[in-house]
Amino acid sequence: MTDKSATLTFDNKQVELPILSGSEGPDVIDIRKLYSQGNVFTYDPGFTSTAACDSAITYIDGDAGELWHRGYPIDQLAEKSHFLEMCYLLLYGDLPDAAQLEHFETTVTRHTMIHEQMHMFFRGFRRDAHPMATMVGVVGAMSAFYHDSTDISDPRQREIASFRLIAKMPTIAAMAYKYSIGQPFVYPANSLSYAANFLRMCFAVPAEDYVVNPVLERAMDRIFMLHADHEQNASTSTVRLASSSGANPFACIAAGIACLWGPAHGGANQAALEMLREIGTVENIPDYIEQTKDKTSGKRLMGFGHRVYKNFDPRAKVMKQSADEVLELLGIHNNPTLQVAKELERIALEDEYFISKKLYPNVDFYSGIILEAMGFPTSMFTPIFAVARTVGWISQWQEMISDPQMKIGRPRQLYTGPGRRDYVDVERR
Ligand code: CMC
User: Fold this and answer.
1) Which one is catalytic: 229, 306, 313, 351?
2) Is the CB of residue 268 below 6 angstroms from any atom belonging to ligand 1?
3) Could you confirm whether 94 is annotated as catalytic?
4) How far is the centre of ligand 1, averaged over its atoms, from the C-alpha of 399 (Å)?
5) Which of 238, 276, 358, 359 to mutate to test the pocket of ligand 1 (most atoms within 8 A of CB)?
6) DSSP string for 178-230
7) Of 47, 112, 303, 357, which is most buried with the most CB atoms under 10 A?
8) Measured from the CB, is residue 301 less than 6 Å from ligand 1?
9) CA 280–ligand 1 middle distance (angstroms)
């Protein structure tokens, strides 16, 4: 809070609006009383200048390329922490001590299996269903299986729903994948880390032993960490809006997954790799880049640009390093898709159009490269993002529900439709 205020003058009226300060970042003009005092709304489709809530979870400084979770910079977390520790940090606000961490890991890990009857639910999908389609349906269906954790007014039930979602999401994503390729489901192995268990559930088959490569396990864990939360992005805002009506957590997270699927958001990693394949060879890059500058082409350089980061995406920096490690380990040097990716990155970073519009490779540009090298099909890229982002959605949901000032989200509009008119019977139209 500050004692600063802004005065809005219009139509011979003056409205005094308080200015609020957070711990970091720009101040906000508090317009909550604007309508009652001035009879006007504000207009900001796309929320480019609007803070929709206050939050103590994640801070982004887009100009400086900074991303902090609960104050800790993402590069330090990515180097020193691991995904489940980060989940604790996001959910509870501080890093755990050793006993808290062990207790948390054991608790989450004990929820990795899904109700056996849910297996039948999977079988209702077409065998070639996109894993995201399956995930939206199955996660929404969790509210039909876990009734004892849907009372959002009970903090203990909220906590159990949080554990269930974090623990079961990799199982559901891996099952959606296995179903889409016609292989048997692989049950979780609780002796493995979160990342190793996920790799095993995706790649193991009953006919052979599967040993998780520690470099790939670390790279997977980093992908989860780098996607864990990103303050009020589209899918998180969707989860908050859905939850603001009091809907149960499983339904709200299903809404978040649906929003994440779009190519401007979590679907960008799939779109980026498909674009690299479409370009095909290094010689085709200049022509493709020209098309992305032409607004009538409908093409964008996927994996480039960000609403908030206008300098660089700090997650992309760590992801690029991880990509190099994975490609080195797997001995992949001549893969044509990866050659196109490297050359595209080089050319775009020197191109005046991309420089002047501050368009840099984002996290999805490199995560697609790593996931492709690990053997994931493009259809699994966004489900993996959903697995990682679940903890962010849940932490933001918990924060919102615990706030006594929570209100249903209900935006207003600038109406541009017809004025009042009278109904005309069909024979007279
Ligand atoms: N390729 C070509 N031109 C672009 C691109 C791009 N990837 N991104 C933005 N522009 C241009 C855009 O045409 C516009 O030009 P002008 O000012 O001449 O009209 C200008 O840059 C600003 O674009 P905008 O659409 O107003 O910017 P935004 O902040 O609304 O969009 C974005 C951000 C991420 C949706 C956009 O950059 C984009 O579509 N990128 C490609 C998709 C992508 O990689 N998304 C993943 C984002 S990171 C992960 C996540 O958050 O899910």
Assistant:
1) 306
2) yes
3) no
4) 29
5) 359
6) HHHHTPPP----TTS-HHHHHHHHHH--TTS-----HHHHHHHHHHHHHTS--
7) 303
8) yes
9) 23
Cα-based distances in Å from 396 to 183, 300, 390: 35, 30, 10
For 251, the token pair is 């339904």
> What's the rounded Cα separation, in Å, for the pair 295 and 291?
8
> In the 8-state DSSP scheme, what is residue 310?
S
CA atoms within 13 A on the CB side of 421: 6
Distance CA 364, CA 345 (A): 13
The single-letter code of the amino acid at 173 is A
Question: What are the tens digits of pLDDT across the range 75-91?
Answer: 999 999 999 999 999 99
**Which amino acid, one-letter code, is at 296?**
T
Q: How far apart are CA 89 and CA 278, in angstroms?
A: 40
Does ligand 1 lie within 6 Å of residue 266's CB atom? Answer: yes
| Band of residue 1 on the pLDDT scale cut at 50, 70, 90 | low
For residue 154, indicate whether it is catalytic.
no
pLDDT digits (tens, 9 = 90+) for 349-374: 899 999 999 898 888 888 888 998 89
- Cα–Cα distance between 189 and 170 in angstroms, integer? 12
* Contacts of residue 54, Cβ cutoff 8 Å, sequence gap at least 6: 22
Q: CA-based angle 138:142:143, to the nearest 5?
A: 130
Residue nearest to atom 25 of ligand 1 (CA): 307
